[in-house]
UniProtKB/TrEMBL annotation:
Keywords: Cytoplasm, Methyltransferase, rRNA processing, S-adenosyl-L-methionine, Transferase. Residues 34-236 form the Tetrapyrrole methylase domain. It comes from Neotabrizicola shimadae. Belongs to the methyltransferase superfamily. RsmI family. Residues 260-304 form the RsmI HTH domain. The keyword rRNA processing applies. HAMAP family: 16SrRNA_methyltr_I. It catalyses: cytidine(1402) in 16S rRNA + S-adenosyl-L-methionine = 2'-O-methylcytidine(1402) in 16S rRNA + S-adenosyl-L-homocysteine + H(+). Its EC number is 2.1.1.198. It is found in: Cytoplasm. NCBIfam families: 16S rRNA (cytidine(1402)-2'-O)-methyltransferase. This is Ribosomal RNA small subunit methyltransferase I. Catalyzes the 2'-O-methylation of the ribose of cytidine 1402 (C1402) in 16S rRNA. One of its GO terms (molecular function) is rRNA (cytosine-2'-O-)-methyltransferase activity.
Length: 309
């Protein structure tokens, strides 16, 4: 997962308790199959007892970052013993996956933990899970911490419908298309972003979606320097324009307001957009700003282009 924990576990202020000395979570055997285990996104105590049982009892452990998992197990008194701990991440998936699938085919239990949060959410575990399912092997989940749900909980934005869009592409063209596409989704929008690019992201969204759209920026959730900033998108863009941001970031946007734009307003917005964008991109941008139907705007943009040709 790109939402890093790593050495941040040490900053959580959690030390090993009596269970670490006694080896309380010794494990009593885990059912065969692949077990996806959610791990804390910051505070080391945000892990479930079931997750600790699985980590203690699985035949094979796999992790996006083995150092992070080792440290988490040490904090909670879970012994690795002589069990294999396999690194599984974006760069070695093709090599590591067959080994883990073989262990599953032999009837062993394999526990996989992302670096922080719930596996498969912005995490390389997806290919492993799919390979196990395609091979007819059992796949289980031990739910727990998730940056997406944590951010939604503290945001104050509607949670009855939300859309997790992951990380925007860094390349300019792909990024614009991505933001145009997700901006019109009628739901609370949740994105991850690098702290180095979050100022740029807020500025881009303020232009595309309008400065009044409700927005929330969550930084370092559950960690010592947790910060939640709420306000109109334009205000957040101004606040973070020159600010050096550190730590893990989640950005949330309220859903687009119901469209009230008139045909004349839509035409004016399209004409302005067509001065710098293609017909398709102009329609997508105006749809993201106004909430109007993108297909209708595309047809209108085509007519405007023909009329000016």
């Amino acid at each position: 997962m790109r939402f890093r924990c790593g050495s941040k576990l040490r900053e959580a202020g959690v030390t090993a308790g009596p269970e670490a000395e006694e080896g309380r979570f010794a494990g009593a055997g885990v059912a065969p199959g692949l077990h996806f285990v959610a791990t804390p996104i910051g505070a080391a105590r945000d892990i479930t007892l079931r997750a600790l049982d699985i980590l203690a009892g699985a035949d094979v452990l796999a992790a996006e970052d083995t150092r992070t998992l080792r440290r988490l197990m040490e904090i909670h008194g879970v012994r690795l013993g002589d069990r294999p701990l396999v690194a599984y991440h974006d760069h070695n998936g093709e090599q590591a996956r067959p080994r883990l699938i073989r262990a599953l085919q032999e009837g062993k239990s394999v526990a996989y933990a992302s670096e922080a949060g719930t596996p498969l959410v912005a995490d390389p575990g997806f290919q492993l899970g799919r390979a196990a399912i395609e091979a007819g092997l059992p796949v289980h989940a031990a739910p727990g911490a998730s940056a997406v749900l944590c951010a939604l909980t503290v945001s104050g934005l509607p949670t009855d419908r939300f859309f997790f869009a992951g990380f925007p592409p860094p390349a300019e063209g792909a990024r614009l298309r991505f933001l145009q596409e997700v901006g019109a989704v009628p739901a609370t929008l949740v994105l991850y972003e690098s702290p180095r690019r979050v100022g740029r992201l807020l500025a881009e969204m303020a232009v595309l979606y309008g400065p009044a759209r409700p927005a929330v920026l969550c930084r370092e959730l559950t960690k010592r320097f947790e910060e939640v900033v709420r306000g109109p998108l334009g205000a957040l863009a101004d606040a973070f324009a020159e600010r050096e941001v550190k730590g893990e970031v989640v950005v949330l946007l309220g859903k687009p307001e119901a469209a009230e734009a008139s045909a004349e307003e839509a035409e004016t917005a399209l004409r302005q957009a067509l001065e710098r964008l293609s017909v398709k991109d102009a329609a997508a941008e105006v749809a993201a700003k106004t909430g109007l139907n993108k297909r209708m705007l595309y047809q209108m943009a085509l007519r405007l282009g023909e009329g000016e040709a």
